[in-house]
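Kindly review these tokens for lecture notes.

. . .
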Amino acid sequence: MSEPLRLGWEEWVSLPQLGLPALKAKVDTGAKTSALHASDIEPFGTAAQPKVRFLMHPIPSRPELAIACSAPVTDRREVTSSNGETELRFVITTKMRVADREWPVDMTLTDRSSMQYRMLLGRQAFNDDVIVTPNESFCQPTLSYDVYSSAKVREVAPDRALRIAVLSRENNYSTRRLVEEGERRGHTVEVIDTLRCYIALNAMAPEVHYDGKRLPRYDAVIPRIGASITPYGTAIIRQFETIGTWCINGSAGITASRDKLHAHQVLARQKIGMPATAFAASPKDTGSLMALAGGAPMIVKLLESTQGKGVVLAETKKAAESVITAFRGLRANFLVQSFVKEAAGEDIRCLVLDGRVVASIKRTGVAGDFRSNLHLGGAAKAVKITRAERDTAQRAARAFGLGLAGVDLLRASDGPKVLEVNSSPGLEGIEGASGKDIAGALYDMVERRARPVPVRRSRKSAGTAGT
């Protein structure tokens, strides 16, 4: 039988499940319950599985440093403080470590910013193996606040429950998979209709509102912005970026990828292979435009085309002139590209996640159609890509700053050519053809990026936060 653990009236403790490796706690056997400092307390989750998230300021002398924490709610109870005030508090259960011992402790959450100790341990926190000696202090090993440097906190950060927003207007396979996988991992995933969001702009507290209420703080936003609402959708993402919310794909990358001309200019700047491409506004330049693209056969493509719509193969010079004339008559913006004949109606979709290719498939168009889009009836199967294709796909996603991207490549005789970089790639086709859990890999990235690290606020804002 092990010896009892002896505690003084103050001790260093760790709360590993909350990502708090060092806290100085006051041990008070006169108090029944234990309390943990928490600010910005916010409930989330479902009625069946309620959770709470909060900010913890572990160092009393440094209110500008905060650790984001979350935990399941085990109870709500009224607690009367030493000054006689009664408060309804959330209760969580988390493991506490002292020296080489670890056991679960119930904690009530409350603002202890005016207290010297960020944690109070009441008598309910101790079992028969603990002896408290009120006239002594620090009977157990001393810890250090140095562990709250960014690098060290990442090493001990827990797999905490996250609150995630999926910006989507469609109840399709991709949206359902994102919700399903997130909830399976214990996160709260909320689908937000982008067009029902609106923005409150001011210098001190920019906000995103939805259905008459301010949206809560999210750990991450997964944009699924449809091509038809790109300007408004990217405005909403910019607002989340202004607030400081991490978005898997940023507004600038989505905007650039959606405009075909802009996208090819980004690729050209990074010297990434692509079909010869030309653009002109004047009808007098039609002949020169076609010559720059290498002549017929050629592709004529609307700048905001998607899913193969607005993409035409002109097999002869006369056909190309007719298509260009028709597009100009509609006042449509378009570009022309060389036709990569050796691709034979096939392309490669590389799914790039957090800078690396996690899956790749070959897409083949239906008989007689040069387009290989799955939405148009094309077929897909897993394919092994070359090192050059992998490098090209990863460089293309990096050029747009996209955490999640579908990069479409053509296999040309002189190397891979990027056709498109898709900032909202569908998951159904690539998961089905490759057999890989893309949604799971995406959440692996979200969990890595959203792990709690110190949030350093300015001392001025920290000092006025409670006023």
Summary: The CA atoms of residues 220 and 245 lie 6 Å apart. The longest strand covers residues 86-98.
